[in-house]
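task queued by scheduler; priority normal; single chain, no ligands, no partner chains; default sampling; output format set to C-alpha cells
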Amino acid sequence: MILTLDIGNTNIKTALFDGTEMVNYWRLSTSITNTSDEYGITIMNLFQHAGRNPGDVEGIVMSSVVPTVNFTIEHMCQNYFGITPMVIGPGIKTGINIRYENPRELGSDRIANAVAAYDEYGGDKPVIFIDFGTATTFGVVEKDKSGAGAFLGGAIFPGIKLASEALTSGTAKLPRFALAKPDHVIGRTTLTNLQSGMFHGYVGMVSNLVKRMKQELGGEALVVATGGMAVLLAEETKVIDQLDGLLTLKGLRLIYERNKA
C-alpha cells in the first residue's frame, strides 16, 4: 500500500492507496509546533481505527507548501513506518512537461494536481484545474504536439476563507461572519452585505478567470475543482464541470508509481 500526504497551510490531507484504489482518507491540522511523535501517534491511531496495519505500507509520497513542517513529517515517516518518504520537488519524474519559466518555483501540490488532472481528464480538450484551499490556485494542462501532457501555467489569488479573515481582522467595525450563500445579492444587514460581497464577488472572480483562460486557449476546456471550498462554490459558478476532492492525492500516487524504481 502507498501512503500519500498533501501538506497544506491549514490541513494535511492523507490517503492510503491499495494499487489504484483509495481505501482510506483522513485530514489532520497542520501545526508547526507538533512533534514527529505527535503526528506519528495520530496517524497510528487513525490506522488502528480503520483496521489497517502500518506494516502494509510499502511507500510514502508527500507534497508540501509548508517547508517548516517537512523535517518533522519526514522523521515521523522514518520512525513510525521505517520509510523515507518520496518528496515532490526538482528531479522528480512527473510524466508531463512543465512549461513554467522556472519550474523550481512551482508548488508541489500544483504539480500533483496537474499530473492527476491530465491523467484522469486530459484528452482532446485542455483541462483547467482549480484548487480551493488557503490560496486558490488555477492551472492548465493540455496535450502538446508530441502527444504528452504539458502544464502551461495558471493563476493564484487568496482563498475565500483567507480573504474573509483578512477583511474582518483589518477593519475596526466589521464582524466575523460565516461563509454562506445569502438569499439576496443586495444585503440588508452588515452580515448579509459581507456574505454577499465575499460569496458572489468570489464566484464572479472565478467565472471571469475561467472565461479569460478559455479565450487564451482558443476554445473550450474541461474545468475540474478540488479543495475544501469547491462544493460551496461549484453550484453557483456554473463553470465547473467536475468536482474531485482527491485530485492532489491521486496525483501523488501517480508520481510515486512513476518514480519508485
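post-processing summary
- Helices lie at 36-50, 67-81, 108-121, 160-169, 190-217, 230-237, 247-259.
- The longest strand covers residues 149-158.
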